[in-house]
Amino acid sequence: MASPVTITADECRLAPKVLLHDHLDGGLRPSTVLDLARRQGYDALPADTADDLAEWFATAADSGSLERYLETFAHTVAVMQSAGALERVARECVEDLHADGVVYAEVRFAPELHLEAGLSLDEVVVAVLRGFASGEEAAAASGRPIIVRCLVTAMRHAARSREIAELAVRFRGRGVVGFDIAGAEAGNPPSRHLDAFEYLRGECSHFTIHAGEAFGLPSIHEAVAFCGTDRLGHGVRVIDDIVLPAGAAPTDPSFGGAKLGRVADYVRDKRIPLELCPSSNVQTGAVASLADHPFNILAKLRFRVTVNTDNRLMSNTTMSREFMVLHQQFGYGWADFERFTVNAMKSAFLPFDERLRLIDEVIKPGFAVLMG
Ligand SMILES: O=c1[nH]cnc2c1ncn2[C@H]1C[C@H](O)[C@@H](CO)O1
Ligand SMILES: [Zn+2]
C-alpha cells in the first residue's frame, strides 16, 4: 500500500515521538566511547576513529544472532564503570533523543554490569538518574521539554533479578519507573525469574520482559501467562501463533481471516504492548528482513504495536529513522504514526494523568501540525 503522502526524515524528526525500548549501553555516541576509553586506559576498542567505530558496531551487530549481537556490548559496558562516565552517557542520551524529537522515553540498562570499578548498585542508578535530570533540565531550558525515565534491567543468565527488582522499587518515584530482563533468551526462560516478578507484582510495580525475539512463542507464553508482564520487549515471534488467510501478502490491508492461537489472542485481548524494534529485529535474526517484519500484520490485526530503537549505536538508528524505515516499507502516514505513538504513550510506566497530559497537550497537537 503506497502512502498518500511522502514523509521526509526532517518531518519525522519534528514528530513528537515516544520511545519505550532503548538501552543506555546500546546508545552511546561513538566519539564518547573513544573519549571514555582514552581517559580510562581501555585499549581493547576495535577501531580508533568515531566513524570506524560506528561502522564496526553496526557491522558486528548485524550478525543474525542475538548472542553475537550482544557481544558488542562488552566495549560500551567497559567504558561505563565510573559515576562520571555513567552520568555523561545518560546526559548525552537525553540530548540525542531530544535532538531527534522524542518527547518521552524510558531508557533501560543493567546496573549489575557497572560494578567493576567498585560502584554499588545504588551509586550506579544515582549517577544515571543525575545524567537524565541534567539532560532534561537543558531540554526544558530550550523551550521544548523531554521526559526521560529509567527501567532497571536484570540479566537473564545471571541470578540477581530479585535484587534488581528491589532496586527498582527502592528508586520508584525518583526516576525509575520499572524493571526488565534482557540478555541471551535461549536457555534462559522468563520463569527462572519468577521470584522477582512476584515481588514486583506484590509491590504494584511495573515490568517488561524481553521475550519472543531470539526464542519463540514459549518465551512469550511464559512472560504473559506465568510472569504477568505488563509489556513485551519485542514480542515479535507472536506472529508464530497467527495463521494468515492463504496467499495474504505482508502489505495486505485486511487480515480478517487471520486465525489467532491462544497466546496471540491473549496478548491482543489484554492489550499487552509490543515493543517492536524493526532494525534490531533484522540484525538479531528475529526476522529475516524488513520486508518480512510482521509489524504491519500485527498493526492491521490491532495488536498494541509501538516503534522503538533498541540500540541506537548497534543499529545505527534513531526514532526518526525507524519511522522512515516503516514509512518506506509499509507506506505508513501520519495518522498511523500518531496511532503508534499514542499506543506507546498509553503503555508507558508513567502515572496515568501524566500520560494523558502528554497525549492531549503534546502528541495530538504535534501530529495535527504535521497533518496540516
Ligand atoms: O535486543 C536485546 N535483547 C536482549 N538483550 C539485549 C538487547 N539489547 C540489549 N540487550 C542487553 C545487552 C545490554 O548490556 C543489556 C542492558 O542494557 O541488555
Ligand atoms: Zn532490548
TrEMBL record:
The keyword Hydrolase applies. Belongs to the metallo-dependent hydrolases superfamily. Adenosine and AMP deaminases family. Adenosine deaminase subfamily. Substrate binds at H23, D25, G183. The active site is at E213. Its cofactor is Zn(2+). Its EC number is 3.5.4.4. It catalyses: adenosine + H2O + H(+) = inosine + NH4(+); 2'-deoxyadenosine + H2O + H(+) = 2'-deoxyinosine + NH4(+). Residues 16-364 form the Adenosine deaminase domain. PANTHER family: ADENOSINE DEAMINASE. Catalyzes the hydrolytic deamination of adenosine and 2-deoxyadenosine. GO terms for molecular function: 2'-deoxyadenosine deaminase activity; adenosine deaminase activity; zinc ion binding. It comes from Gordonia neofelifaecis NRRL B-59395. GO terms for cellular component: cytosol. NCBIfam families: PRK09358.1-2. Keywords: Hydrolase, Metal-binding, Nucleotide metabolism, Zinc. Zn(2+) binds at H21, H23, H210, D310. It holds the Pfam family A_deaminase. The record marks H234 as: Important for catalytic activity. One of its GO terms (biological process) is adenosine catabolic process. This is Adenosine deaminase. The lineage of its organism: Bacteria, Bacillati, Actinomycetota, Actinomycetes, Mycobacteriales. It comes from the Bacteria. Binds 1 zinc ion per subunit. InterPro entries: A_deaminase, A_deaminase_dom, Ado/ade_deaminase, Metal_Hydrolase.
